[in-house]
Amino acid sequence: MRPFNSRATQPTPAERVLSILTAAHSMTVVSDGLDPVEVHRLDGTAAMGHIHLHEPSEADSPHPGPRVPVRLEFTDIAPTPVRDRTRARVTVTGLLAAPYSTDAAESTCMEFGQAVFEDHRGRTFVTLDTLQDTDPDPIATSEAGMLTHLVDDHGELVPLLLRLVQPQPAKGATRVLPLAMDRYGVTLRLEYPGAHRDVRLPFAKPVARLDQAGPQIHALLAAARRASHRNQLLT
């Protein structure tokens, strides 16, 4: 796999897709002619423990067998109680050798077609080669717990991070909460009456291991405390 970009400040669409697939707790399976199947409780195995993606078969394969078009739908929901909690959507299309069954004891093999990543910036198509060439984010499966811990046990520290936002955001926000965290940094959501704005705080360097995330967050807080100007956004 190609190493992640140490100069990047936010994940690529391929990294987001891989993180969502890795951390997903549920998905919707849609096959032609069949009702959608809601698959829950993916904890411990994740989506890719239920579905194995592989390259498309050769067109001249002597025994390709019957194949069923299928679509896997994932919704990335913020773990914190922010306004508009849907962060992104991922759709993976492909072919199965047989209709998907939740009773299958082993991983279902899926011939990959394409992945579509959608967020507030728009839609991006991601190929299987790009996914396979992308390193998994070490924070992906722990992000929800880390963000809820920050809000529940250290919520008073979150507004402190606004001192690091440049240029300083407009006054009048009614609430600020962490929206997302990845190997490159933290995203905060500032909520205003009838609107919201997201701001990005990059780490000093990308996280290579999960145990590096805590020190990076503490480094952001230390930098915020050293900031010379006062944060009066929530006053």
Please tell me about this protein's structure.
- It is built from five helices and ten strands.
- The protein has two domains: 13-132, no CATH class; 143-226, PNP-oxidase-like (Split barrel-like, Alpha-Beta Barrel).
- Strands 1, 2, 3, 4, 5, 6 and 7 form a seven-stranded mixed sheet that branches.
- The radius of gyration is 20 Å and the shape is elongated.
- By secondary structure, the chain is an alpha+beta fold.
- The model is unreliable at 231-235 (pLDDT under 50).
Q: What descriptors fit this protein?
A:
single chain, 235 residues, alpha+beta, Split barrel-like, 2 domains, seven-stranded mixed beta sheet, three-stranded antiparallel beta sheet, 5 helices, 20% helix, 31% strand
User: How widely separated are the two ends?
Assistant: 48 Å
The helix/strand order is HEEHEEEEEHHEEEH
Number of strands: 10
Helix content estimate:
10-25%
In short:
With 235 residues, this protein is an alpha+beta fold. The chain has helices at residues 13-23, 47-50, 128-132, 143-154, 213-226; strands at 27-31, 37-39, 51-54, 68-77, 86-96, 108-119, 122-126, 175-182, 185-192, 195-202.
